[in-house]
Amino acid sequence: MFKKITSESNRLGQWSATAICGNDILSSALYVSGIAILFAGVYAPLVFLLIALVLFFYKSVYTEVVEALPLNGGAYNCLINTSSKTIAAVAGVTGVLAYVTTAVISAKTAVEYIHTLLPLPVLVTTLVVLGVFALLVASGLKGSAKVAVVIFLFHIECLVVFLLLGLMFFLQGNSYFLSNITHTYLLIPQQGGILIALFFAFSASLLGVSGFESSANFIEEQRLGVFRKTLRNMLIGVAIFNPLITLVVLNSMDYRHIVHANAFLLSDVARTIGGPIFQYMIVLDAFLVLSGAVLTAYIAVSGLISRMAADACLPNILNTKNRNGSFPFIIAVFFLLCSSILLVTKGHLLALAGVYTISFLGEMTFFAIGNLLLKETRKELKRTYRAPVVFVVLAFLGTMIGIVGNVQIDPANLRNFALYFVPLFLLVVAIIYQDYFVRFLLRVSEKITLPQKKLKKYFAQLTDRRFVAFVHSNENLFRILTYIDRNETGRHITLVHCPCDQHTIRGAGTVEIKELIHHLQKTGAFVHLNIDVLFLDMPFGPRAIHEIVKKLRVKENRILIGSIHDFHPYDYAELGGVRVIF
pLDDT-derived band of residue 447, with 50, 70 and 90 as boundaries? Predict the structure, then answer.
């Protein structure tokens, strides 16, 4: 998974990567205007400008973290390199839930749009949409990206035409805006005042930034420098289209009609400003771009789950690739999970909508937390950009306000989120700490021969896993061993020492490390660990990592290092996916 793709031509360019994320974040234009107007009336465009400001802050947050640690996994990748595996798993599970609900809600909403024109069975057609995109992603990322680009360009074209027709409608002297101002002044007191109305509108309308977190989950598939451009392009799209589309809606339709047509608002507005043909065009666009959001979910969740599986947070079989470079087991499991949730809820997805909102807002909030941890615990880690602390704090507050607001809008949202989150998180925790569970089973089955033999064999396989840590000096040794002991099942630890410079006495560092280990284990610390020390006669860097991988036959994600500093002549990305633990 962590091998760098040798040819840049095999990786995604700016517009392919932007299209994959953009189909998710800009599909919200089809429904988010109605949500904001429902709470804030004519103040809705102001709400979207505030949301664009929060997204501007998050652009800095994501840029610092992902360019410093450019591996798939998003917030999970950030936290596993700055905190513990358990904390990272919380972010990982939250991310998986966000993509499950994204896929199911987007697919069903897409089918409901097309259902306004064709009498197709909604549930069956939704399953077909989920299945078609599963097969598309399984066929390879480049083919998926081409489909995403076509959908994205058509969607942008439709939105531009929508704005132009809205302007023509206004210039012809047609306007409901004054009427909607009157309704707003009646609405605001019912909401509890202007600040409360803006609070609820802001919280509910943060649905409009779902998808901004996706690019970080497939960073390894993007060309160098593309990630930052995808964030910029998504920010521009949200900042331009959402406020302007909301103005067109407020000008073209009465407030009561907006509330009534909330589910398919742009379809009704399109008919008003452009006639039946343009309405059909918007309906087709809605079906395509919401289906494109399903594609985004498959691609992003593949990057996230494959990373979690490689780190032993999920079964490693999920990390198996096919000849097209896709993850068939992840795609199959994700399809089955989405389909089962769809069938269990029988298409009534109001409960999942709350899970959806809290999940992706939680994912973004974890990114802000991870950024602060990166600044505090990895101060010297080499990075291309440093986000101002005030930006990180404001970004964190923005999404936290959104989570609180969504819980207040409907307290069932938090309960429904917990209903899906808790079982999945417990599964991940059981895998992370499976050595403790196996050890417990060994104790309770002492007198039963057959289970004892099988459990002992499995326990031996678990604890025989090797981890490698590069040690520069003795001062970090205790921290390294403590981290491995608390976060990993492996008990075979190889400590590698490289010479600091050409004047370093060969092997002198390894003697000191061995003496310290002897003293630690003599006091009873780490006696259960099988620790050996290796001197590598070359400076630390990509060549040293490659040599250890080849010599010890260990994967890069089981190699632990300290922060890469600015004076190092290489970047973290060149090390192939090793983990930073101090």
Answer: low
Please check whether residue 9 lies inside any domain of the structure: no
R_g over Cα of the chain: 26
Angstrom distance (rounded) from CA 433 to CA 428: 9
Domain count, the chain: 3
CA 257/CA 179 separation, integer angstroms: 12
Are 507 and 405 in the same domain? no
113 and 128: one domain?
yes
Contacts of 552 (CB under 8 A, 6+ apart): 466, 468, 494
Distance of alpha carbon 212 from alpha carbon 227, whole angstroms: 11
* Structural domain contains residue 6: no
CA angle 42, 46, 47 (to 5 degrees): 100
User: Token pair of 7, please?
Assistant: 């040819």
Contacts 24+ apart (CB under 8 A), 327-334: 327/302, 328/138, 330/301, 330/302, 330/305, 330/306, 331/134, 331/137, 331/138, 331/298, 331/302, 332/134, 334/99, 334/100, 334/103, 334/134, 334/297, 334/298, 334/301, 334/302, 334/305
8 is a domain residue: no
- Crossing angle, helix 122-138 and helix 85-115, to 10 degrees? 130
Do 411 and 445 belong to one domain? no
Lowest-confidence region among 198-202, 351-355, 385-389: 351-355
Q: Which residues are 559's β-sheet partners?
A: 468
Strand order across the beta sheet in which 530-535 lies: 530-535, 492-497, 466-470, 559-561, 579-580
Per-residue pLDDT tens over the stretch 524-541: 999 989 999 999 989 999
Give the CATH number of the domain where residue 213 resides: 1.20.1740.10
Does residue 7 fall inside a structural domain?
Answer: no
* Residue range of the domain that includes 449: 433-463
Q: What is the pLDDT of residues 308-350, one digit of tens each?
A: 999 999 998 999 999 888 999 999 999 999 998 888 877 666 6
DSSP state for residue 4 in the 8-state scheme: P
Q: Residue 432: what pLDDT? A: 92
Q: What CA–CA distance (Å, rounded) separates 387 from 376?
A: 13
* Tokens of residue 162, six digits: 């929508």
Residue 471 sits at φ, ψ, to 5 deg, of -115, 120
CATH number of the CATH domain containing 553? 3.40.50
In whole angstroms, give the CA distance from residue 40 to residue 185.
10
What pLDDT does residue 3 have? 43
CA–CA dist 571, 85 (Å, integer): 23
Q: 261 phi and psi, to 5 degrees?
A: -100, 25
Closest CA to 573 of 144, 175, 265, 220: 220
What are the pLDDT digits (tens) for 474-494? 888 999 999 999 999 889 999
Give the whole-angstrom CA distance, residue 222 versus residue 21: 12
Indicate whether 255 and 339 sit together in one domain: yes
- Tens of pLDDT, residue by residue over 123-180, are 899 999 999 999 999 988 777 888 999 999 999 999 999 999 999 999 998 899 999 9
Q: Strands 492-497, 530-535: parallel, antiparallel or unpaired by DSSP? A: parallel
